[in-house]
Design goal:
2 copies of one chain form a homodimer. Chain A has 9 helices and 2 strands, in the order ββααααααααα. Chain A is mostly helical. The first copy, chain A, folds into 2 domains: 50 residues, Orthogonal Bundle (Arc Repressor Mutant, subunit A); 132 residues, Tetracycline Repressor, domain 2 (Orthogonal Bundle), CATH 1.10.357.10. The first copy, chain A, has a two-stranded antiparallel ribbon. In chain A, strand 1 and strand 2 form a beta hairpin. In chain A, helix 1 packs across helix 2, helix 5 packs across helix 9 and helix 6 crosses helix 7. At the A-B interface, helix 6, helix 7, helix 8 and helix 9 of A face helix 6, helix 7, helix 8 and helix 9 of B. Chain B binds a DNA duplex through strand 2 and helix 3.
Chain lengths: 210, 210
Amino acid sequence: MYACTHSGVVDSWHIGGVSGTRREIPNDPGRKERILDAALEVIAEGGVHKTTHRKIAARAQVPLGSLTYYFDGIDDLLAQAFARLADTMSLLYRQTVQAAESMAEAEEAVVELICGPAYATDREMTLIFEMYAYANHNEAVSATTRAWLERSRDSLALHFTPGVSRALDALIEGWPMHRAFDDAPLDRRLVAETVHAIVSAAPRLSIDTV
Amino acid sequence: MYACTHSGVVDSWHIGGVSGTRREIPNDPGRKERILDAALEVIAEGGVHKTTHRKIAARAQVPLGSLTYYFDGIDDLLAQAFARLADTMSLLYRQTVQAAESMAEAEEAVVELICGPAYATDREMTLIFEMYAYANHNEAVSATTRAWLERSRDSLALHFTPGVSRALDALIEGWPMHRAFDDAPLDRRLVAETVHAIVSAAPRLSIDTV
DNA sequence: TGTAAGTGTGTACGCTCGTACAGACTTTTC
DNA sequence: GAAAAGTCTGTACGAGCGTACACACTTACA
C-alpha cells in the first residue's frame, strides 16, 4: 500500500556481518515526479478540461494503473501538479528578487519578472491561467495559490515597503497576462518607468504609514 | 435548418393583397441567449472542465437536443458564452470610464474598476479566469479576449496617454486577481495613491514621447 | 383541408472517462 | 526454497459524455 508521503529514502545496512540491501527505491525512483511533470505538460497543451489519466500516463510512459496507485484520483493529481508548479515558480521569483543588492537592481528585477521571458514563458503563463481557474473550484489548489501570492509579496518585501510590494505584485500579475494575449511585445522602458513611478511614490502610499 | 447567424428578425408583409405573418419568432424568442446565460452559470459553478451539455440544458430548462440545434458542438457554445461575457463586461468597463469628466474622476473610475465589486464580483472574476484559461486552447475565445483587452485600453485612452493606459490596464487586470484570492479586502486608499502615482508620471513615460 | 417547409426534441449509440481490483512481480525474511 | 510483505499493473466495468437523427410539431401557403 502506497502512502502518499513518499520519501524516496534508500537505506543499506549490515546484519550479522551479512550485507543486505533493501529494495533500491520502490522500483522507479522519480516516477511520481515524472507523472507530475507529464501532467503539467498535458495541461499546458490542452487545458485541464482535456486532461485525462490516460494522456498523462502515456506522456509519462507509465501504465495507467500507476496513476491510481500514486494519487487519490484526478483532483489529487492535479492539485499536486499545480503545487509543483507553484514551488518552481516561487523559487524563481524569489531568486530573481533576492539577487538585487540595491534599489536600482531591485527595480530592474521587477521589470525582469514582468517582461520575462526568463520568469514566465508562454507555457508557464498558460499553466498559471489554468491554475488560477482551477483554484476557484478546488480548495487544495486555492490554498496553494494563496501561499504562492503570499510568498511573492514576502519576496518583494525584501526591498520594498508593504504598500509598494502590493502594488508591484499586482503589476507583476497583470502585465504578463496582457503580454500573453497582446500581439506586440512589451515595452521594457515603459515598464521600468512605471515601476519607478510606483517605487518613488512609496512615502505617500498610505498603507506604509499605518 | 438553423443557421447560427440567428437574427431574431420578424417580418410581416403583403403579397397580392393577402396579409400574411411569418411565424412570430421561431418558438421561444430568447432561448439562445438563455442557453448562453445558463452556460455561464454552469461554468462559474464548476469550471469549464465540469461543464456539459446536459448541465447547461437542465439549467436553462430546455431539452438536450436544443443545444445541438443552436450550436455546433460544445466548443462553439463555450466560445459564444464567453463572447457574451466579454460584451457585458466591456460595456460596464467603458461606461465606468466614460462617465468621468475630469482627471480626478477618471482616476476614481480606475480605482472603482480595481476595487469593485460593482465591476467584477467574485462570480465574474471566476468566469474571467475560466475565459483566459480556455482562450489559450481555443482560437475563437482567444480572439474574443484580445478584442476585450483592446477595448479596455481604448476606453482608458479617453482620459489617459497610451503609456499610462497600458500601465493602468495591467494594474486593473492584476489587482482584482489578487483580491480574488486574498483574505483581506483591498485597501482603497493604497489603490488610489498607486493610480495617482502612475498618472502623475505620464510626462516621463517613454511610450508617450514616441 | 392538404402539402411543403421549417422548427424543435427524445432517444439511442458509440465512445472515453475515472476507478477498482485480482493478481503478477520483486524483495525480504525465515 | 518457501512464505510473507510489499510494489506495481492490465484489464474490465459502470457511468456519463457529445452527438446524430428520425420524427413530432408548427406554420405558410395552395
